[in-house]
Each structure stands twice: as structure tokens, then as C-alpha cells.
Amino acid sequence: MTASIGIDIGGTKLLAVRLQGQEMVAKELFSTPGEDMVGSVVAAVRELWTDDVTSVGVGVAGLVRFNDGVFVWGPHVPGSNVAVREIVEGEFGVPVIVDNDANAAAWAELCNGAAQGHRDVLLVTLGTGIGGAVISGGEVYRGLSFAGEWGHMMYQANGLQCDCGKRGCWETVASGPALARLGREFIALNPEGQLARLLRKGDFTGETITRAADAGDETARGLVSQVGAALGQGLCSLIAIFDPEMIVVGGGLGSIGESLLGPARRVAADALHGGAHRPLPPIVVASLGPEAGAIGAGLLAQHHIAAEAL
Ligand SMILES: [Zn+2]
């Protein structure tokens, strides 16, 4: 059975897994050290290495050129134009693939998760920002290299400032930080309200508000629903462009489920082009959780190495 190592690099963590076939047999979580991104990848691979490993897959949050395995740039990961594939292949002597982290997560959901058995699927990951991946005809669609970065599609002209340096991107209104901002705005207007008492300090996050919503706080539920509506608006555009079989929503914020996806579905159904004459595709929660990216990177490595061997 083919063994591979999968690595998922985000802004604050590096998760490494070893797969035997499709099954995860080992995993380790590392904090992401400073500037030497590829050095931390090499160290993580070495940590999980066994002699039967025949391929390595690396998923990175940001712009990645799959064809030559170069990490081009990302707002949350150090370095630019890093030749990850060349360096890791040189170190271990096995084939290495490098891809965007959402592409890797989508591949895992397709092979083992919520999108199993489907061929035309979009993955939308909601966390600090919005990540995305397109599965078309059962393969990852990358465009020239960077397809699926719809967190930065224009949502509102001259809108809120985005981490990418531009204004009005979709992720400024549908992400963890967007939810936290709505909370801060509400509390500024209602400093004596129940939500202010519940959250106490100004340093809460989107997650704090989703917990308050889960605990039954009506205001927090309203804020989650507002972010869900903004999510639904953007999903409606994606459906108009791609007409997918299904949309899988992942990431930390995506995992909260119906309180977010219910409003998203309603808004998307209302706004959908020709909505009276076509069904809304299923919009479902990802099933593999935070390990999807690392598992998917390992599975993608196996998939491409097997394809090359044909
Ligand atoms: Zn942006």
C-alpha cells in the first residue's frame, strides 16, 4: 500500500500526517516558526518519515504554482517565490507536489469526505478569511495557477479594508473577523446589553460570538445570521458561474453549521439567477475537520504520482 506524507501550512500552524493508502496513521502539529517556511516543512517530513514513504504533498495557504511547486505569496505565510518542491525533493528523493491548502482540503473531501461520489464541487473555507477550491470533472481545477481565490472577489465597491490590501472583498463581510467586527459594532451601540455582559472585553473573536450563539444568545444568533446572509450572497455568484453539483463549506467558522448555513441557503435561493426554474445545489458542512488540508495534500501526492506512473 502506498505511504505518503501530507503537510498543511497555515499562518499559525503546520500539521503533518502520514497516510497508508487513504488512512491516516500518524499526525503531528507544529507551531509555524519564523521566516524559514521550507525549513519547517523539511523538519516536519523528517519527523514523520518512514522508509516506505513514496511521495510528499504540501498544501500552503496562499498563491501556489502547482506546475513547478513554487509558493508564490500569501498574506499569512512568510516568504515569496519559494521553490518548495525542488528543495523537499532534493532533501528526500521522492516526488513532491505543492498546492494551495484549499485545493488539498477539497481533494480530501472529494476522496473521503462530504463530496465523496461527486465530480463538480466547490469548497468554500471560512476562517480568518475565505479560501476556495474548484473540483471540475473529478479533478482540481487551478486555472493558470490560482483559481478559487474568491475570498477576494469584489463584494462591495469601496467597501471595508481587506487583509490583501484591497477594499470590499467578500471575506471582509463573511469570515471570523467579520463576525467579530459586527459584535464590536453592536456592543459599541449597546454597552449595557446582554451580549456586552457575555463577552465582557473588546478582544473577542468570531469564535466567541458563535459560542454565545450556540448557548442561545439571540443577539449573537442574529450576528451569525447576518454573516450567513453575506455568505449566501457570495455563494449565489459562485453558483451562477460554476453551476456546481454541491458546495462544501469548511474552515473553523464553516463548522458551526446550520445557524450560518440556513440563512446562507435562504439568501442564495432568493438571489439565484432563474431560481424559480432550477434547484439550489446542496450547501453542506465539510466532514473532515481541521485535518482535511494535510490529508488532502498526502492524497494529492499519491494521485499525481500514480498518474505519472501510468
Ligand atoms: Zn481581499
Kindly identify the CATH topology of the largest domain: Nucleotidyltransferase, domain 5
Number of strands: 12
CATH architecture tag of the largest domain: 2-Layer Sandwich
What's the total helix number? 10
N-to-C series of helices and strands: EEEHEEEHEHEEEHHHHEHHEH
CATH superfamily membership of the largest domain: ATPase, nucleotide binding domain
Q: How much helix is in the residues?
A: 25-40%
Q: Low-confidence spans: pLDDT under 50, at least 5 residues?
A: none
Structural class: alpha/beta
Number of structurally distinct domains: 2
Rg result: 20 Å
The top level CATH class name of the largest domain: Alpha Beta
Question: What is the strand arrangement across the widest sheet?
Answer: 3-2-1-4-7
Bound molecules: zinc ion
Which percent band covers the strand fraction? 15-25%
Terminal residue distance = 17 Å
Shape: globular
If you average the pLDDT, what whole number results? Answer: 93
Sketch the major β-sheet. Answer: 5 strands, mixed
Q: In terms of topology, how is this protein built?
A:
Elements (H helix, E strand, L loop, with lengths): L2 E7 L3 E8 L2 E9 L5 H12 L4 E8 L2 E3 L4 E4 L10 H9 L3 E5 H12 L8 E6 L3 E7 L2 E3 L34 H14 L4 H6 L6 H9 L3 H25 L3 E5 H4 L3 H14 L11 E3 L6 H18 L1
Parallel strand pairs: 1-4, 4-7, 8-11, 11-12
Antiparallel strand pairs: 1-2, 2-3, 5-6, 8-9, 9-10
